[in-house]
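Quick one, tokens below:
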């Protein structure tokens, strides 16, 4: 009797095995594909969010760079204005009451 059962089981297995295997694999395949789609979607959303955050940070840094370049240009102009001889002479005259000596006030000392 046990040999009959084994032969019957083998016969059933031969006829039904690929079909049953395929039917049982479909839910697994579908769930794996669904899981892969969900993971891919999450990766796309995360990547898009990170890209937007980095782009916003880039814009902010570029704006700060432009402001610093503007300030640097203003500082260079002020430096040029402060170091001109006319500016130094004007400050010496106004604040220190200095003046260019007349020809009569100049005394030449020889060694």
């Amino acid at each position: 009797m046990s040999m009959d059962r084994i032969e019957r089981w083998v016969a059933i297995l031969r006829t039904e095995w690929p079909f049953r295997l395929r039917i049982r694999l479909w839910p697994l395949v579908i769930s794996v594909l669904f899981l892969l789609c969900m993971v891919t979607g999450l990766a796309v959303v995360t990547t898009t969010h990170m890209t937007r955050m980095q782009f916003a940070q880039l814009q902010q840094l570029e704006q700060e760079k432009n402001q610093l370049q503007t300030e640097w240009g203003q500082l260079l102009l002020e430096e040029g204005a402060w170091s001109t001889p006319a500016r130094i002479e004007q400050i010496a005259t106004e604040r220190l009451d200095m003046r260019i000596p007349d020809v009569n006030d100049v005394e030449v000392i020889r060694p």
